[in-house]
Amino acid sequence: MWKRPSGSGGRQAFSLVHRYIQHFNEVSGNKSAAIRRRSKIPGVTITQYVPHLPEGKMHPDFQCKVTPVNVKEGHVLVVFKAVVVGEPKPKVTWSRIKGTISDKEKYKNKYDEATGEHILEILNVSAEDDDTYKCIAVNEFGKAVCTTALHLKEVLTNPSDFRKLLRKTKVNYDENQTGNYEAEEDRFWSAMLKADKKDYRRICDEFGVSDINLVMRKLEEKRRAQKVRVMSSDEDGPQSPSPRTGGKSNEFNRSMDQFGTEHAEPHSEDNAFLSTQHLKSNVDFVVKIQEVKAQEREDALFECVLTQPLPRVTWKGKNCVLEESDKYSISVSDHKLIHRLLIKDCMLLDKGIYSIQAGTVSCSTLLFVEDDQDPAPGGIMKPRKSTVARGTSADIEELAKEQQIKNQKEIERILAVAKAKQLKQQRKRENKHTKKAKDGRQSSVTNVADGSEAATGQTQQTDKKKDKNKRPREGSTNTSDETGEHDGVRENNRKNTTQDQCINGDIYDSSSEYSQSSEESETESESESESESESRSESGSESGSKLKFEDESIGTNKVDSCEDDEICEEEGEDDFENSAATDKNLSKSNKKNAVFEDGNPEKYKKKVKTASKKGSSKKTKKKNQQGTQAPGPDGLGDIVEDGEEPDQLLSTTDSEHGQKLQASAQGVISKKEGTKKQREKGNGTSTSRSKRKRRVQLIEDVVIDPGVHFIWGLSDVNAVIGASAELTCKLSREDCEGAWFRDGKKISDDANFKTWKDGVIHTLVITKCEEEHSGKYRFEADGRKTEAMVNVKDPPRFVAEDLEAFTKPVTIKVGHSAVFKVAFVGHHPIKIHWYREEEELQEDANLKIERASSHSRLLLIRCQRKDTGEIKIKLKNEDGFTESFSQLIVLDKPTCPLGPAEVIESSPICIEFKWRPPKDDGGSPVTNYILERQQVGRNTWKKLGEVPGVPCYRDTDVEHGRKYCYRIRAVTAEGVSELLETDDMQAGTLAFPGPPAPPKITDAYDDCINLEWVAPKKTGGSRIVGYILEKRKKGSNLWSVVNPSGELIKEKKYSVKDVVSGLEYEFRVAAVNLSGPGESSYSSEFVCARDPKMPPGRVIGLKVTETSYTHFALTWTKPEEREGIRDEAKGYFVEIRNAESSEWSRCNSTPMITTSYSVKGLRSMNLYWVRVIAVNDGGESAPEELPNFVMSMPLPVRPKFTNQKMKSFIVVRAGNSVRITVNFEASPRPDIMWMKDNVPVAKRVTVSNCDGSSQLLIPSSERSDSGIYSILVKNLVGQETFSTEVRVTDDPKPPGPVELEENVPGTVTVVWEPSPDEKRDDRLHYTVSKLDSTKHTWSTVADRLFNNRFTVCNIMQGREYHFRVYAKNDMGISAPSESPTWGREKKREKFVLSLPSRKNCDLQCAPTFIVPLKLHTAPKGYECYMSCAVTGNPKPRITWYRNNISLNTNTNYYISNTCGVCSMLILQVGPKDMGEFVITAENALGRAQSSTVLCIRE
């Protein structure tokens, strides 16, 4: 019923119970219904006391966070500043966490009215002031709290000297030990870094450190330094693998294997950067970490699933990076998709926020640690639980498999697209070459120089695709280009391999892309081949010109990459000539520039010579028949298959490899020959270009299948000696066999190794790992390979037989000794630590620890009850650690029972009381309690015997009015506890019960009335033994007892049968305890002794007659009566139900007689279901419900504005407030939006909405607030808008200096500098005034000037003139700028009057425009002024037109004609005023016109 209005800023989805409580708190004024609000300022907590803020009111909030301060100890002054807002003005106080700020001399609280800042000043800062401070702002609507901190950097002069922090301890050290402060300091910091926060105080006490605050600051610095070192070590790059380190250098390989990468370079920085950046940019969460609720001492597990494999993520807890340790276990699945964080042995300190950072995305959640509701007896810590609390119930393993399959499908899709694109390009080239072959055209081949130019041009094009910044040097005569060409091969090949293999996401084989770009370059080359050849012959002296090759004569170029050799082959070339010179030049070039992988250039030279003796056409044809390699991303194909070693390259067949070497040699020689010929051309000697025809036919390119690749590769494995280890990889095909290698040696099945193949999955199992099995394992299949490290470790392990005996709890009696012994195996040395309740044990007089090479033994001598708890042994070596738990139970006699004893019943015949069992039962359950009693005033104690183990006793052997005292002892199998003595208890005190509740009538008949009642709350200290029921007739004063004489009513109900039919009765009841009857209850309602009536029927004609935002009115007709079926209705109940709720609420608490009702207190625009129920003595009728819901709103009304005097233009002086009030009518309540220039208004603008009006308020306006403000009122029926132009301005500043010029005799041109406000006010204009020396009055000669000059006519010589220039705008006029005096003295001459001869002249002329109209561009909503000058005799008739429509009769335009100056003023231009304006002047002698165009800008 009580729903938050839609306009409020809070949440909408309240439950019915919450809304009811909230409404109750509103009505009762209870402020306990506080609502938490989120502030925009981080670190600010807001509590709102009321659910709905009144209009114009605001809870406190901070405008900015209070800045923390870091200073040194002894600083003179520290200042905190806070700016608080709220209405009414909040009261601001300051406080701190660890102490108070009541010292007025040290802490000063100030308020700066100018800035509105609340200031806290702290004088003479000391170490005690290092604390967290709070600024609290409170008003009647809420409270806001902002926290900040004061940190002291250094206290000591030399803080690194730790010895200054040590104080003398009680431990007496040897003289040789006292000098070793450095070792003592290292031990201290090592213990502090490993310990929990709860152990800091204990460690400081052990080492004698007194200043705990300084230790905490230095500890935080050391932890930050540790993190920096860890991060720097991670950024150093991959390290060389070793059996102990786990092969960290292969992390890149493993991540690439997950994406189908077979042969990533482990030590390539480019590859590592490429893969890491790609994975991090594309990774996201399939399943995020979920909230975990764990019990104390239970393990908590966070787990998530990623979209892409990622070998490493960053876990954080409470803003600290978490690392693998005894407390935290960080793991990742084999496929690198599932990451887990296990928090062991959760304590209350572990609760908080935990997050994971995976690449560029992250997510966080909460860990809740619930306190154990059943603590162990005696305050002993319960043993650690073996259960694990998880945050998600989803099967993440299944989700990870689905994601892995999805990634594989994406890889296959990308491969298919690349292959299809390559096939498309291949078919295009085939069709092109086939057409050329049919036409019988033969292409010419350039000479050696031209061949080198083509090869150079092709290399330059390839280099441009790799690096746009690399340009070939023009005019170069040395071989530096060749050197760069060969030196860059290794890096290019490495990049090509990485880019071909990283096919996940956006990284894939880009051969199709290169083919497309090559084809585009071929097409371009064909069109420009002829012009290029001519330009090269004419400009031969320019050796550095940009070269292009002719595709028609050269064909398809193929560039193959073979580790460190780059071979450029051209199809259709002739056999080499002068092979000896070629070989010689090639050898020299290779010795200087080429880089050989095996370091043997002679071997390569020999290979080139062998290849050069064979015909290139034959080799080319043979190679094309076998198929070509797909080019890489940079245009370089891979000659070496993936996984092929350099020595395998040199062992390739001469038919294939020799051909590539021959092409490479020809390319190098051609380049050198071309360079030589260019030098000759530069010297003036030209050589004729020899042309050859193609001797071989172009061969089609064959598309090669990309082959087998890895779905996922091998992952590093950490195995334990004696256990089995498994390596698994997955290929893309089933029809492929592979081989396993360990450290380069092939593995075959034997007793130690088992290999098998299951479809596409290949597995290697090491049955029983030994230390010599550590090493690098490799799997090869179809030229592809994947590697991983197997690290066989020997961590400590417990012997199974001893471990089973160790984990069994050990139970002993107090004073006896306990022995724990366990055997173990593992790589030595092994560190052994014993713990009791997570506290490490050290040897002393009562504790002995035996540490042997194969076992360890713990002896606890003379154990006490406090020694009970969890015993843990932890073994650790360089390969890992393990731990096991046991339980020690020390039995002792119980502690005394807990008091005070509570009296349950005290009567003259008995005393019943209870107590609490012992806090510690000593390890055995309580079997009995021994009780003794003493009567107060006597010295003897009477034994009452033993009672069972229930802590309660009822003593019936008591005397009325006597006081007694009791002793209680607990009995267990281990002995009897100390006694508990109770307080005095009195028997037989007279205490009568209180009155019960009034009886309720359940049924009434002619001869019987059934009643029931509730027992009294006050029993008088004894049990209720019965009740006395009385009755009274209506109109009588006598009460008669209903009970049979001498009997009590035992139950809380009774049937009264002594009644007369037709009479009315009332009843009351009294309770009776052991002391006697108590006070009677209030009387019940009158009830008539007659048979029950039939309930009434449904009401008739229920309807709604009136609705509004807060109520609606109902009317109905009373139901019909039918004898024996429906009786007359005596009243009615009205019930309503919110459309979002399922529960009905009754509007009237008592039945009403009228047949109309007004339901009030409704929420605006809410939907309600309504029903009416008729009632009488027989019960309630069936409810009559309206067929449709009722909306709390009046009849729909389209929004319309009611104030007809609203201004559409407002001018406001800068600094004043802007207030726009709009009144409207609308139903239902509309949504209101204010906009400035079609953009929502800024936050500094205050908008207040209420029923029927809306107001926009700018408290202090600025010039930037100028614009058109629009209000949009919209509801279900329609919408309406109104706009007001607001111009915020100020009195303009005067113009600059005024200068006078005379360009034409008789005129003066006034020129002035613009006003500084001209740029900020586009409506600013100027007025020029003139003072004639003969008139002594100022007259305006020009107004509304938008330029900075004006020519004044009719200047008489011999007179002095002064001019003033004013700047004007909508607000007012500026001070004048004075001009210098203008005018000169006229020399008086002798006056001679000469009368001219009189002639008659005709002054009539046709109209002529002496000043035409100008083009105008005006802002929308502003004025536009057009003017021109026309002459003619007789006076012409002037007519204005817009778009050929006369405007003379249009009242929207102000037209004037003064002495031939025709003007037109448009007050507020709009889009309708755009177009061509024409003015015509017409008289009897002719007609003239002038036109212009008006443009409107937004």
Give the helices and strands, then pairings.
Layout: H1 16-28, E1 35-38, E2 44-48, E3 58-62, E4 69-71, E5 77-87, E6 91-96, E7 107-112, E8 117-123, E9 131-139, E10 142-152, H2 175-178, H3 181-194, H4 200-207, H5 212-235, H6 251-257, H7 269-282, E11 285-287, E12 292-295, E13 299-306, E14 314-317, E15 320-321, E16 328-332, E17 338-343, E18 352-358, E19 361-370, E20 388-390, H8 396-439, E21 444-445, H9 448-466, H10 480-487, H11 489-501, H12 511-538, H13 551-554, E22 557-562, E23 565-570, H14 579-592, H15 601-612, H16 616-626, E24 637-638, H17 646-650, H18 654-682, E25 692-693, E26 710-712, E27 717-720, E28 725-731, E29 739-742, E30 745-746, E31 753-758, E32 761-766, E33 775-781, E34 784-793, E35 797-798, H19 800-807, E36 810-813, E37 818-825, E38 831-836, E39 839-840, E40 847-851, E41 855-860, E42 869-877, E43 880-891, E44 898-906, E45 911-916, E46 928-935, E47 942-948, E48 952-955, E49 963-972, E50 975-976, E51 980-981, E52 985-986, E53 1000-1004, E54 1009-1012, E55 1024-1033, E56 1040-1041, E57 1053-1056, E58 1064-1073, E59 1076-1080, E60 1087-1088, E61 1100-1107, ...
Parallel strand pairs: 4-10, 12-19, 13-20, 22-24, 27-34, 36-43, 71-78, 87-94
Antiparallel strand pairs: 1-2, 2-10, 3-5, 5-8, 6-9, 7-8, 9-10, 11-13, 13-17, 14-15, 14-18, 16-17, 18-19, 21-25, 22-23, 26-28, 28-32, 29-30, 29-33, 31-32, 33-34, 35-37, 37-41, 38-39, 38-42, 40-41, 42-43, 44-45, 45-48, 46-47, 46-49, 49-50, 49-51, 49-52, 53-54, 54-57, 55-56, 55-58, 58-59, 58-60, ...
Helix pairs in contact: 3-4, 8-12, 9-18, 14-15, 14-18, 15-18, 16-18
